[in-house]
Amino acid sequence: NKHQKIFVHKDLRxxxxxxxxxxxxxxxxxxxxxxxxxxVERSENFFxxxxxxxxxxxxxxxxxxxxxTDKDDKPTPEEEHKEHLKIVFERLQQYGLRINISKSVMGAxxxxxxxxxITAEGSRPLPEKVEAxxxxxLPSTIHDLRTFLGLINFYRRYLKxxxxxxxxxxxxxxxx
Length: 176
Known about the structure:
By secondary structure, this protein is of the alpha+beta class. It has four helices and eight strands, in the order E-E-E-E-H-E-E-E-E-H-H-H. The longest helix has 17 residues, at 78-94.
């Protein structure tokens, strides 16, 4: 399988979410194409943490960059993955950053993030989110319709012919 297989999701206290994906660094930034909140890769020179108005640069740390890969990337062996995590932990400790263990997942074959289940095979909506869309009450006001359209647009890439299917609903919003 050509997909990334080991995922890590860490939450830093007093900072922000940091995702670590172990692989080679390809591009400084990639345009989003895997959903509305696709997490993109960043080069080691670009990866910075901002905390209390102080920028902490994590320079030349190849294993530390953000999650979600292209399908052409090769997975990293487990031992290399562990070594890279060790480097990341040492660097975070060096800068006095602490990981919120209760919100962290390490060595998982899948993670839940922003309403998606991310695995080596790709991403998909969480089953409970799909269930919420299926069981959504029939919109009775313009506000309800806008809310519903926002909900289904969040998962648009998973809906076949989404624009065509939603066209009639968008027509109802014209002039509102």
